[in-house]
Design brief:
alpha/beta, 8 helices, 45% helix
Length: 246
């Protein structure tokens, strides 16, 4: 049986995890929503750092859309966009003819904005649905599960746990992106140049790629494509996995 000390440590970690989740949620319901809604739009009211983040994120989205189109037959496939933000991936994927997309985000404000944009674009609710949810609470089965630029809010062990969780929902394909750990990025993050100024007020984590790949392998998935998208102040490793075992 676990010792009282070990049980107490586990309980403390759970409390800290919940507190950090609430911190992230609170940020993206208020200041963060206003800032990131602007970044993920065509607004000119962005600074140089925010503009470069916009460009970097768009590269990641464009890569995913290109990969999915190469796979073909989007109309018969179901997708889960976990951590959809304001719909940067879900909306163009719907316009490309995806069969059904379940999109979710921790922030209710983000979900409301994504839903507004979908309505404005004339996308049918039956094709693209939204819900406010954290990653841990997501369930269901989909042909393809995608999670872009969300793991920056998760330390290594929690991110690997989320990879296993999302992989369990994917029948064939899993696509994730994250800020990769390198000595250089660790140094930049340490001196505040990776996420400068008040644009990032929640914790930001870089992750070791081998841990992410190992977690996917434990769930029966192997990497088939990789890409590294970079812009000043934006670094994102994108990996596409395919199921290799039941």
């Amino acid at each position: 049986m676990p010792s009282t000390t070990a049980a107490g440590h586990s309980s403390q970690k759970a409390v800290e995890k919940q507190a950090e989740k609430q911190e992230v949620k609170g940020y993206f319901e208020t200041t963060g929503f206003e800032r990131w809604n602007r970044i993920y739009s065509e607004s000119e009211d962005v600074n140089k750092v925010q503009r470069n983040i916009r460009l970097g994120h768009q590269k990641t989205v464009d890569n995913v859309l290109a990969w999915l189109q190469e796979q073909g037959d989007l109309a018969s496939r179901s997708f889960c966009d976990a951590g959809c933000g304001v719909g940067s991936l879900s909306l163009p994927l719907a316009r490309l003819g995806a069969g059904s997309i379940a999109a979710s985000d921790l922030s209710e404000a983000m979900v409301a904005e994504a839903s507004r944009r979908a309505g404005e674009a004339g996308i049918a609710p039956g094709q693209l649905s939204f819900q406010a949810s954290d990653l841990e609470s997501l369930s269901g089965r989909y042909d393809t599960v995608i999670c872009l630029d969300v793991f920056i809010h998760y330390p290594q062990a929690a991110a690997e746990e989320m990879v296993r969780h999302l992989a369990a929902m994917a029948e064939k394909h899993l696509i994730v992106s994250f800020a990769p750990y390198t000595p250089l990025l660790a140094l930049l993050k340490g001196i505040g140049q990776l996420f400068p100024g008040p644009s990032k007020t929640t914790r930001a984590y870089t992750l070791r790629e081998e841990g992410i790949v190992r977690a996917a392998a434990e769930a029966g998935f192997s990497p088939v494509r990789r890409n590294l998208n970079q812009a000043p102040f934006y670094f994102s490793r994108l990996i596409a996995f395919e199921r290799t075992a039941c």
